[in-house]
Give the backbone structure.
Amino acid sequence: MNLILLFPDDFTHGDTVCLRDRRRVEHILRIQKAQSGDRLRVGLVNGLMGEALVTETSADSIHLSVHLQYRPPPASPISMILALPRPPMLKRCLQTISALGIKELILLQSARVEKSYWQSPQLREEKIREELVLGLEQSCDTRLPNVRFAKRFRPFIEDELTEHVATRQALIAHPYASKPCPHGQTAPCVLAIGPEGGFLDQEIEAFSERGFTGVTLGERILRVETAVPYLLGRLSDLLPDC
Amino acid sequence: MNLILLFPDDFTHGDTVCLRDRRRVEHILRIQKAQSGDRLRVGLVNGLMGEALVTETSADSIHLSVHLQYRPPPASPISMILALPRPPMLKRCLQTISALGIKELILLQSARVEKSYWQSPQLREEKIREELVLGLEQSCDTRLPNVRFAKRFRPFIEDELTEHVATRQALIAHPYASKPCPHGQTAPCVLAIGPEGGFLDQEIEAFSERGFTGVTLGERILRVETAVPYLLGRLSDLLPDC
């Protein structure tokens, strides 16, 4: 937790904040070992970042006086369409995606995604938000990614995909594509990543017909949680992204 | 496990292999659901890759007839010097590093590495090898990375670092460096990555004095397990790497 993320409910009045949840209180007291008079790096969810003065601590609450003054880092220009990973992998992917500044994520059904994954408690709104918050707190950002579910492949592809491609470059990571994944994209871009085992050929075709270019990372088969940061490292240009 | 990695001891005679360890046997029977007559993708550790015909299975053994015929994917031209991560993070980093084709890894002590990490059972030779094997089996490669420990920072820097830089570009990832991390390195390169919290300024200086260039990934603070694939994605050129 390199930044304490604050929510509107944390504010008692004006710039005064009282934290009472165990996660943040324990982190600040036990890991950061903060005491009255110390300053912490904070950010308001979807808002500015700044500093907080610790004014009072007890075993289960911390009072802060907050001064928010600068913008969070720029968002990544990359939107991601990700075939829904296995729940434990999803957890780590959400943290990574959030930490790397992605602000638009669509979790997609595909033939090789087990339908049962959609029933996982990991997909509850509050669980997803928890992982996204961890990513923001790690990387020092405040803007929560927008996560949507596309639980049916065909309707999503047929009814919605075109709008995602309209003004952006569209790439689909595919081991058998002949074109290597490009480096350093500065323009907005949408990137689709398949499930373990990959998209089916006809799924790849459905993307291609709507303007997606297949790009490869080479012959190595990567786990989704490795492929996501690896692809984002390749695609990202430092200036707009970080 | 996209490839079954074989070891010289697995061969009973000629091209005949008998697997008896639970990990591989269970994977082949339960996950791959292989039966006599099926073909599996295999590779000999540090050797060729190819196909194996399943000739006999029982609950606790599998007999294979192996035909090794093609080379593993090219190695990454990147060598890595990594400040020793926390043991659970090390586990994942080793898998990622191995999956991404890195063949030379030095785990380094640095001021912000807790000394107790060096006592972790995770650092036993067989545990490290286990994680590296998982990475190779994931990405379909056979060549085990060479992992060395540098348990004392100064002696390593003073006595050994120069030889690592002699013929290669040398980069050190550092959040406060002004130069963005380059894209698509095709030439051999050595990359140093600090611990959580970063290298100390004087440690960065020690690297710089020996020819390392500081490169930044931007203002976001990444976990080591995210930074490793992100950096490798940026640095790797697809042709020699994958």
